[in-house]
Amino acid sequence: MRGSMCGQPGPEQQLPARFIAVCHPGSDVVRDHVLGIPTAIRQEHEEIHARLALATKLAGRTGEAARALAEVLHPHFVREEQIALPPLGLLAGLAKGEPVAGMLEVLPMVDALRAELPHMIEEHRAITAATRRLAGAAELEGQAAAAQLAAELLAHAGMEEQVMYPAAVLVGELVRLRAASASG
Description:
The protein is mainly alpha-helical and about 180 residues long. It has one domain (about 10-184). Helices cover about 70% and strands about 0% of the residues. The protein has helices spanning about 15-25, 40-55, 60-85, 90-95, 105-140, 145-184.
């Protein structure tokens, strides 16, 4: 079983890498799965993780809801950072028509995303339910920052489903087309 989140007992090695970085500054955990992710998206994920880490430290129903949300959110973010978000790092170069070094490396990621997309969307349903529970608890307990985090996380999930995932798939299609035209 996974260790508890920030401030709770549990071995550091069992925490998601993002939580180790937030809850255990100076940890030697390597976060190489974020390479190639556009800075704005990576920073948004880090901000969500940091704010959720703070919410997990709260007492009462809000803290409990935040910890439950963290349990479903973090594995999902890790997988996104492995397969869905790195292809987006090619967008600017592809849009400019520039050759992009190593662009074929995203094809296995895009293939995995395409195969896992129904599961990732289903995970969003669980994340949405947990986020709504956090919002409700935060509003009842007057935890404005946690309520705001919940609202932003709901919008973030919508952005992923409506923009980021489709864009990552389109990056793969464009890379395939460019590779075919270059070899043909």
